[in-house]
Design goal:
Helix content: 40-55%
Strand order of the largest sheet: 4-3-2-1-5-6-7
Structural class: alpha/beta
Distance between the termini: 60 Å
CATH superfamily of one domain: NAD(P)-binding Rossmann-like Domain
Number of strands: 11
Bound molecules: NADPH dihydro-nicotinamide-adenine-dinucleotide phosphate, 1-deoxy-D-xylulose-5-phosphate, manganese (II) ion
CATH topology of one domain: Rossmann fold
Largest sheet: 7 strands, parallel
């Protein structure tokens, strides 16, 4: 059944990997969706092209300088697009009464305020920006509860888990769920000699075996901090206790996660590793629409492998579990330390193996406080970033 009015969609982070995949899916369904706003930080030329193609009502960039650049690129073109800038602009296009759906696909803590603005305004929020949920946990969930916004997971594993659970599902036990099996590929260094890991380069770390993604999440996959963040994300999204979630390494990224039921059933969601599937699923939920992703051919695929994670090789998994156990602002500090350490690695200032070591030092020194509101989240985030810079400076 086609909705009579197209849904109006804001795509936060439209120039990124998830943003581009989202626009690909939206463009396949012009009767269903119209694009309200597109946003970027520094890829202004790409954003200008997207504005020409999709004619959004608003385009938002991070700075006045970026806005001037975009104005110049679009000068003389007959577009309905108004250009805004900064966090206020992002929050405006996330919460405007004319918006139905917000794709939250900014990377990192920078996405928190606009994503929260969408949640507080009661939008249908498609959550790719896992860092926003991890860093703000209880504050994010409270805002969701108070506004009645609909949150749909885009992260492939969480989207898979969502698909394997009955809907609605507010309590795993009542639904007969025993475990969530969170799958992870193990990244590009799953089998690399441990002694070599200190010298791997940013480009090697970003060469994910199965997924094409932005550089920050690619490094997270290589350290398996991505799975650590996803473990926390799963606890929050599905109201799961830490012991209800097992991480399973699955190198082919075909099974996107599984739910184990009391009666011995293990439900899996499978598909080719292409984010347009979870994006299309969440956009149209509970309907199903074409995503452009070809059907999975199991005969060609041939085999699916599973193994336990190597926690010696990937200490970030343990650090994430410890942060979740500590509670309060510990996940905020974990996320902040990780963002700063990954940036230092990408800039060639930190060895790959030191990412986890730096985060561990920060976690040992950061004070976990209760997250009473957005101010407390942002203060804990700032303190952890300052602490991480000091740890980096002392190396
Ligand atoms: N890529 C994937 O397959 C998956 C991604 N995710 C999650 O989705 C999110 C996006 O990831 P991905 O698309 O790979 O990342 P990218 O780096 O490819 O894209 C990030 C987007 O955010 C924008 N952006 C970055 N920093 C800021 C800032 N400070 N203020 C405003 N906008 C900013 C970028 O703008 P610009 O282009 O101008 O720099 C870009 O549009 C992450 O949280 C990631 O963990 C989750 C599952 C899968
Ligand atoms: C596509 C997606 O959801 C990523 O988060 C992906 O899971 C990364 O791969 P890893 O399983 O290697 O972390
Ligand atoms: Mn994922």
């Amino acid at each position: 059944m086609q909705p009579t009015q197209p849904q109006s969609v804001t795509v936060l982070g439209s120039t990124g990997s998830i943003g581009v995949s989202t626009l690909d899916v939206l463009a396949r369904h012009p009767q269903r969706y119209s694009i309200y706003a597109l946003t970027a930080r520094e890829r202004i030329a790409e954003l200008a092209q997207q504005c020409r193609r999709f004619s959004p009502r608003f385009a938002v960039v991070a700075s006045e300088q970026g806005a001037a650049e975009l104005r110049e690129l679009l000068a003389g073109e007959d577009l309905p697009t108004e250009i805004l800038c900064g966090v206020d602009g992002l929050c405006q296009v996330s919460s405007d009464s004319q918006v139905d759906t917000v794709m939250a696909a900014i990377v990192g803590a920078a996405g928190l305020r606009p994503t929260l603005a969408a949640v507080e305004a009661g939008k249908k929020v498609l959550l790719a920006n896992k860092e926003a949920l991890v860093m703000a946990g209880p504050v994010f969930l409270r805002a969701l509860f108070n506004s009645g916004a609909q949150l749909l997971p885009i992260d492939s594993e969480h989207n898979a888990i969502f698909q394997c659970l009955p809907q609605p599902c507010s309590n795993l036990g009542d639904a007969g769920v025993e475990k969530i099996l969170l799958t992870g590929s193990g990244g590009p260094f799953r089998t690399r000699a441990v002694n070599d890991l200190h010298r791997v380069t940013p480009d090697e770390a970003c060469a994910h075996p199965n997924w094409s993604m932005g550089r920050k999440i690619s490094v997270d996959s290589a350290t398996m901090m991505n799975k650590g963040l996803e473990f926390i994300e799963a606890c929050l999204l599905f109201n799961a206790r830490p012991e209800q979630i097992d991480v399973v390494v699955h190198p082919q990224s075909i099974v996107h996660s599984m739910v184990q039921y009391r009666d011995g059933s293990l439900l899996a969601q499978m598909g080719n590793p292409d984010m347009r599937t979870p994006i299309a699923h969440a956009l149209a939920f509970p309907e199903r629409i074409d995503s452009g992703v070809p059907a999975l051919d199991l005969i060609t695929q041939g085999r699916l492998d599973f193994e336990a994670p190597d926690t010696q090789r990937f200490p970030c998994l343990r650090l994430a579990r410890e942060a979740m156990d500590a509670g309060g602002s510990a996940p905020t500090a974990l996320n902040a330390a990780n963002e700063v350490a990954v940036e230092a690695f990408l800039q060639g200032r930190l060895a790959f193996t030191s990412i986890a070591a730096v985060i561990e030092q920060v976690m040992n020194r950061a004070q976990a406080v209760e997250l009473t509101g957005l101010d407390a989240v942002e203060t804990a985030d700032r303190h952890a970033r300052e602490l991480t810079q000091r740890v980096l400076g002392a190396l």
